[in-house]
From TrEMBL:
InterPro entries: DUF4371, IFN-induced_PKR_regulator, RNaseH-like_sf. This is Zinc finger MYM-type protein 1-like. It comes from Sipha flava (yellow sugarcane aphid). Residues 2-86 form the DUF4371 domain. Pfam families: DUF4371.
């Protein structure tokens, strides 16, 4: 049995390259191997085209994928994960047991990607953070000024904070959005002093530098920036720990599902009046500790929409800028997050994957301590998909395996002594048979127990004769 992972990327000549990687377990040793099976070039990457290339690779390598392939893993592109025309859908038509597994951490990254680009305020926030990085960090002189001002601000506040650099907003790693935002909020005063100093020293000679500084200062001292920044900080404080948990070594599907359900519950709690009021309170507290006055939200001029024939009512014009921010930005971002979380973390294939989570180290230890906690429907979904597996036999073997797990784990490596009551008297002779090394402290503390066989050489002769 094997599983396959397929991904596409451009090479140096801008040709689309498709890589096929198989993952299998050695039948004798049980070791898991990953091998690059093939690399194919194709300018067309639709689901049907990828399926045709996949079939050709399987036939060329003489792999019985319809019966022996048990898993498939791709990214979140529609041509890969599509339920009707995606590659995984075409493969499952011929091989129903080939589970489609999509990295949960990657799904979460796509959720955040949609949230940070859903409206103009979100786009302006992270666009200006990237502009600030390019403006400050691409010049050694400006980067030095930022470090010096951080030291000055720390001395004035009586703090010895470590120096930080402004972070880049990467389009491929959403955690960079959080890192860039945290630095600007933490050193907001230092950033403003740096921009003002650069504007005074370089702005008069270079109009582009002066205009860039003025634009960044104007945005970073606006209430629009502060509200949007603190809103995304609240969101990142919920999502960032989840990303690290999803990438942990002993994470299983059962735990991942529970964590994501908790995330959805926390986001839903943010979608109410009390949460928005708490955001306004944190905004006021931040403004009180700042060295500048923030420009309040500006009321936009209402558009006069002519009433059409037969139209008896019109949409209500929102005159309050704070109410408009809540409706057009706060609520929109929360709705996008909830919709994306519900849509991307669908329940497809979760049943068999939850069954496989029972094989994780954590679950085995739980069953070992209490065999009665095994769920009543354990391995139901797995045995339904793989009909050749008998559920009762599998469940019995699983419980026995958990009971004897400690003994199995301890027998993987040779013990220090095969017999607890035998400690060799002649240490120099024992080195020929014992592959372990002992330090002087262990030699001094060891108690010599006499045995009816006086030396290891005689024991070795008896072993060979037997």
């Amino acid at each position: 049995m094997f599983s396959i992972s397929i991904d596409t990327t451009f090479d140096a000549s801008r040709n689309e390259q498709i890589s096929f990687i198989i993952r299998y377990a050695d039948e004798v040793t049980g070791e898991v191997h990953e091998r690059l099976l093939a690399v194919k070039e194709s300018p067309i990457t639709s689901g049907k085209k990828l399926y045709d290339i996949f079939v050709n690779v399987m036939e060329a390598e003489n792999l019985n994928w319809k019966e022996e392939m048990v898993g498939q893993s791709y990214d979140g592109a529609s041509n890969m994960r599509g339920n009707y025309n995606g590659l995984q859908a075409h493969i499952k038509e011929e091989s129903p047991q080939a589970l489609f597994v999509w990295c949960h951490s990657h799904r979460l990254a796509l959720v955040v990607k949609q949230a940070v680009s859903c409206n103009s305020n979100a786009v302006d926030l992270f666009g200006n953070l990237e502009t600030l990085y390019v403006f400050l960090w691409c010049s050694k002189k400006r980067a030095t000024i930022f470090r010096e001002i951080q030291i000055e601000c720390g001395n004035m506040e009586g703090k010895n904070n470590p120096l930080h650099a402004v972070k880049r907003v990467s389009t491929t790693r959403w955690s960079s959005h959080a890192a860039a935002l945290y630095v600007v909020l933490k050193f907001h005063n230092a950033v403003l002093k740096t921009l003002n100093k650069i504007k005074d020293s370089e702005g008069s000679a270079d109009v582009v530098v002066g205009a860039s500084c003025s634009g960044l200062i104007s945005y970073l001292t606006s209430q629009r920036f502060l509200l949007t920044a603190l809103l995304f900080k609240t969101i990142f404080q919920i999502l960032e720990p989840v990303t690290r948990q999803l990438q942990s070594q002993d994470m299983d599907m059962l735990m991942a599902t529970n964590i994501l359900n908790n995330v959805i519950h926390q986001i839903k709690e943010l979608r109410n009046d009390d949460s928005f009021k708490r955001l306004l309170k944190r905004t006021d507290e931040f403004a009180e500790n700042s060295i500048v006055d923030f420009l309040p939200l500006v009321s936009s001029r209402p558009k006069r929409v002519p009433r059409k024939s037969g139209e008896h009512c019109q949409d209500e014009i929102i005159s309050c800028p704070m109410k408009k921010f809540r409706i057009d930005t706060y609520n929109v971002i929360m709705d996008i997050l909830l919709a994306e979380l519900s849509g991307r973390f669908e329940s497809t294939n979760i049943g068999p994957l939850k069954d496989l989570s029972l094989l994780s180290f954590r679950r085995i230890r739980e069953v070992q301590n209490n065999p009665h906690i095994v769920p009543c429907d354990a391995f139901d979904a797995l045995c339904t998909m793989y009909s050749q597996i008998d559920k009762n036999s599998l469940l019995t073997e699983y419980i026995e395996f958990c009971k004897n797990f400690t003994e199995i784990e301890n027998s993987i490596l040779l013990p220090k002594y095969l017999n607890n009551n035998l400690i060799v008297e002649d240490y120099e002779d024992s080195l020929e048979l014992n592959a372990y090394s002992y330090d002087s402290a262990e030699e001094d503390s060891a108690k010599v127990v006499y045995h009816n066989i006086s030396s290891t050489r005689e024991l070795f002769k008896l072993f060979c004769l037997a």
